[in-house]
Amino acid sequence: MIESCKHESRPDCNSIECCRLTGDGRSAVAVVALRDRLQSSDNVHRLIAACFQSASATPMKADQIRYGVWTGPPEQHKEQHSEATHSAATKPGGSVTHGESVVVLPLDRGRMEIHCHGGQAAVGRILDDLAALGCQIVSSIEVLADEFATDGDSSETGRLVREALEVLIRCPTQRTAAIALDQVRGGMTRWAIDSRTRLRSDRDAWGEVSEQAVAILRHANVGLHLVSPFDVVLAGPPNVGKSSLLNAVIGYDRAITMDQPGTTRDVLSCETVIDGWPIRFRDTAGLHEGGESIEREGMRRAQSAIAEADLVVAVRQAQDGSPPPTSDSLAWLESSTVAALRPLPILHVLNKVDLLAGSPDLRKQTDVLYTVATTAVGIPELMAKIIARLVPQPPSTGEPVPLNRRQRDCLETIARAKNSTESGFAEVDTALTRLLGLDEPV
Ligand SMILES: Nc1nc2c(ncn2[C@@H]2O[C@H](COP(=O)(O)OP(=O)(O)OP(=O)(O)O)[C@@H](O)[C@H]2O)c(=O)[nH]1
Ligand SMILES: [Mg+2]
């Protein structure tokens, strides 16, 4: 039986801010955070009492969760403001029969969380109701940035922490989130502040700071792929087993495979996670000379995919004898226009080794992986090799990792200073200031 604890008077919500704390996508549970700028718990409790029917009549205490039903603001408020249409139905006796089932978590300093169903409708309704009562809807980054701020924080910590929070809330895996969280907790900020402070007391330290930036930049590629997946393209001649390899790696039949060349015509994408790293695989049409117009268009698309890839898995079919694995048999890739644009990051795979009569020497080659896509032989090794190529050196806990192009550009400026024949102090100091966001008007 749900006890009513409604206050009929309209609560004063002018100082209350709220936001959706969890990411924008659909999830099992979403969290709406409330906080009173004056840190008044009374204010927030009055607001909750107006919109929430607790299942228990005992007074709320900080850190004690409370189950109940979100009924929304009293009807008179809703009529004034609202597009909110989900008012709770009330039985003749006064008890609420339905509304949004929620869990409310009172916290200290005028903060409160509402945990509700993770669909857009439930969160949208709660935020609409809160806005209708006069609460201000703010960005979750603002709320989180304050939560992570520590004593003595100043504008110096602001920009990098905010940028890290923006990445953190969009990270798709625990592994990537851990790296972003490290930056929220000050990985990059500490390095930048310490380096700047040191530089200002010892102008000759710029060379060392510049060397450190070079080391940090090793993680730039990882930092830029915490949210958007690495792009791995399977390419090679027709019928060698590219689509079969894709299916074997992701564990289900995403692509059609057939014993005839030209099965895959278009670029086919699919996202997965290997070892905590988000990866988008792209299967492509077999590359070969000539072909009808639709095949040529498929090959053109394959070439574009190759040109953008973080890693190209170059698949060929194992043959008896000793096909040179990484040189002339790759003419189809190397002669392609895209290869001229940049050195291609290639991982060589010889598939269908089960068809070999036996070429033991071939298997000794270390720069090529051998697979049987149809029986998953060599697939774990292929997955491990893909990760080793994409993330050769994962960042250690707490290490600074640049999370966006802006941060990377600042670090590249600092790193370039090491080649300077003259003093690079000014260059490094300016770039550190920019990295910290201290060049912007407050
Ligand atoms: N024996 C053997 N057959 C394989 C292996 N891998 C794939 N096949 C078969 O080879 C044929 C071609 O496989 P696909 O995966 O469609 O080849 P593809 O490279 O994607 O071909 P296109 O899309 O035409 O470029 C299919 O009949 C697969 O079952 C393997 O390791 N061993
Ligand atoms: Mg195919």
UniProtKB/TrEMBL annotation:
Query: Record's superkingdom?
Result: Bacteria
The record's section on Pfam families has:
MMR_HSR1 (PF01926)
Ranges of Basic and acidic residues compositional bias?
75-84
GO terms for molecular function, please? GTP binding; hydrolase activity
Q: Which residues form a coiled coil?
A: none
Q: Does the keyword Transmembrane helix apply?
A: no
Question: Which principal EC class is assigned to this enzyme?
Answer: hydrolase
Q: In its keyword annotation, does this UniProt entry include Electron transport? A: no
Database matches in NCBIfam families: small_GTP
* The protein's name in its UniProt record: tRNA modification GTPase MnmE
From what organism does this protein derive? Answer: Stieleria varia
